[in-house]
User: What shape does this take?
Amino acid sequence: MNDVQLRDRLFKLFPPETDADWDDVLLRAKASSRSFRRLTLLVAAALLAALAVGSALALSGRIGGLFHGTPVNDLTPRERFLLSEFDMKGKVELIATRNATAFYVIRRGDGRLCYSIGDVRKNLTPAQLEGRMRFSPSGCIDPRIFPSKAMPVLNFSGYSYRPGDSESRLVGLQGFAADPVARIGVIGRDKRIVFSVPVENNVYTAGKKGIAGARGIVALDKDGTVLWVQCTAIGSAPAPQFPSGGCGKYKNSPPPNVPPVTQPAKPANPPGPLVVQRGIGDGVSVVVRGAQVEAHFAGLSAEKRRLLVFKDGRISLGCFKLVTVGGREYSRAVNVSTPFAPIVRTGLAPLRGSFAAQFDGCRVAGTYGHTWNDAHGTHDTVEIALTPKGRRFFAEQAVARDISWLARGRVFRDIRYARSPLSADEVARRLGSHVVPLDDPKATPPIGRLGVWVGDPRRIVLVERATTGRRLYLEIRRGVAYRTNLDGLA
Amino acid sequence: MLGLSKASTKSAGAGSYSLEVPHSEENLLDQIESLYRERFADFVAVAASIVGERESAREAVQDAFASVVRSRRDFRGDAPLEAWTWRAVINAARKKKRRYFREVHARATAPSPNGTAPESGERSELATLVATLPERQRLVLFLRYYADLDYLRIAQILGVRTGTVSASLHAAHKTLRKALNEVVER
Assistant: This one.
């Protein structure tokens, strides 16, 4: 019996209580007499009795099966960084897998639970393991809301509509469900259940099946009784192809009525002294004061100015910080789209939390596109390093982009997927003077050149050394990225 | 602005809270309420592991939080609020257990943690086993596996060293594993 099994047995033995009563606590805190305590005890007992004869769903305030799975201990640094960025940092547990789909719960430090659905990670190369995020649709929810009688299902499916379709389709039917839910049914265009999937281990999925004309979903217990309805065919439809007019006898369940938890407002600016940074690069000077950035473009060359305002006269101005997670470096950045002007002043407002100096660098980008080895190079239009770390990052990012853009480029497609591998000399000849052939996969070309090595079985190694001295590489095997150290850079 | 925040120590477990000073009484009350709402099930389960009876455990949690609310002015903020609250719950449960045993003088069988009639099979075996563990082992077991607290936080709550937590958990785990394996093999 391992830790997880022991924990599950304890949860079975001690089903979690759901009848928290804060008002009772406050009453007890105010009252000092024994008689008053006895009275509240009686009231509590009466409430408990009422709950006991209630529906089976009354027990679903917290369900062990939904909250505990197998701990996931192999999160990559990239996944840990991204979870942190999306405010989902916590303990990750795998609840269940269905074919190629994995269902996760993430227990945040503040007690909130996040749910996520992703792919089962198998047969991945080291580069794919590092570069792919295992979590796809994700969301965090107050455990008082889900799972509960008012909301026994957390549905992750969506509706899709492509121009030309006569009606929208429900796609990716999948999600999490509380214990009493045995099946999830789909309400069709004739307002009857046209399709259903079983709920096993608190999860359900219909794979990639799409259901045209779907109007909503229902949660059914093992006897087929409707426990909960989510009808989306209400109100005004965003397009004629989306259903409206209700779901017939399946009435939408009322939303959960849970008092909001008082969350103290976070200060707009973090406490502490205001950090001021100044920097200059590519003819642009910036002054950063906390979360405010002021950029002066007086020294910008005409060519860069033309690039910046190329499409719609707007620029993307942002600053970044480098953070190290699991020994890997990632950049946290906020970019703001703003009209170009000789002097641009803007605030860096992230989606959550605060984001203020000290930064490692700032940059300005336009809306023009890139192709590998084009005249615009691999640097951003304007790069302003504010720290040595920022300067190093800009240098290595440019080299990483050189490798990455080539590997993804149209010009490289025939080489990458060639059945009979070309020689390194032939590859270099096709790609031009920027690329040099290498004799050994561990060799490194001179700075400013991109080295290529080709070998069996259909193995290609792209290598380049940054001006910082760091060797960056991407190894491709049978057309698939096999191993790389470009993570966090490109 | 006062807010709930994750404990600053690296090893703080899930649902850990610390206070950002200065804190007002009203804000402290909000934090106590949040803690109560989010961890109610854990508090009751741990209290039940002491009292051995569900209804009394729930009562102990209610009493403990009433006491915490009343005495929140005494909270100095030099330890996490969660640890302070856990101690109050454990003390209230111990008090309730003494009263419970005074009222129920004679009990033929070991107390059922669920407060229900003894069940047959492995489940009742586990209930009996848990109930017969020494109190510290039982507490550590529940704080670790049910409330999902880390060793440091459990040590803070129980006022012992982390090594003691580790040893108690190991002993409890060993006892249960051995006994349950025997049950399954029977």
Summary: Chain B has a mean pLDDT of 70. The helical segments of chain B are 25-51, 54-70, 81-103, 122-132, 135-145, 151-158, 162-185.
